[in-house]
Amino acid sequence: MTLPTYSQRRRRIYEQEQSARDFHFEMSLPNPEMRRQVISLYKGRGDTSCRRHGSRSGLTSRAELLNLGRDYPQGYAYFRPRLHRAFMANAHLREEEAIRNCIARAEYVRKGE
Exposed/middle/buried for 65, CB within 10 Å: 0-12, 13-18, 19+? Predict the structure, then answer.
């Protein structure tokens, strides 16, 4: 049994990395608008602009999920990892209907209805 040469090992590693990159590319959200919505719900950095000057600000007038954690009774340090875990639990979703359902659930939580 002969061991693979250095170039053969490097080629195998390169092919594995390439297949991982291809997989990640295929797994991106199907709709860029949905991706923007999800990020906006999480971080609160939506498309907001000043009417007078036309400049963009990083803050929105409505309370987004990550900002809600600042007023959480057990504290921001308790809230943030749990919010992140909830979003990452649904990161595998690729069907638009399932993503819309998760967005609706997040809006429900954000509004507190």
Answer: buried
